[in-house]
Specification:
Blueprint lengths: L1 H65 L11 H4 L5 H6 L2 H12 L1
């Protein structure tokens, strides 16, 4: 009889231990879920802030783009297309570069 009571007590302890382990495990999972949810909520808030900043910036950009674009102008004089060098720059050019410059400028 004593042996049966000891077996019953042991079984009770095993059941209680397993239920406590399951409870602690589910509590840990719930705690992890809550922490994950908090992190996700923060990320959503940051994303919302980024979207709002992007929208504000894009509105300003659209305003800039709406301004009429200037038409390209065609060069009218030789000075509009001429390339000039300072004396120091001219001295740094190789003979080939100087010859090429003269050839292009004559055209």
């Amino acid at each position: 009889m004593k042996e049966i009571e000891e077996n019953i007590d042991c079984t009770k302890r095993n059941i209680i231990d397993s239920k406590m382990a399951a409870f602690i495990g589910s509590w840990e999972m719930k705690k992890t879920e809550v922490e994950s949810q908090n992190v996700m909520e923060k990320q959503i808030k940051h994303t919302e802030n980024d979207v709002m900043a992007t929208l504000e910036t894009s509105d300003k950009t659209l305003d800039i783009k709406r301004e009429p674009a200037c038409l390209l102008s065609v060069p009218e004089t030789f000075e509009d297309v001429a390339v000039t060098f300072s004396d120091d720059e001219w001295k740094m050019l190789k003979k080939q570069d100087k010859d090429l410059y003269r050839e292009v400028m004559v055209q």
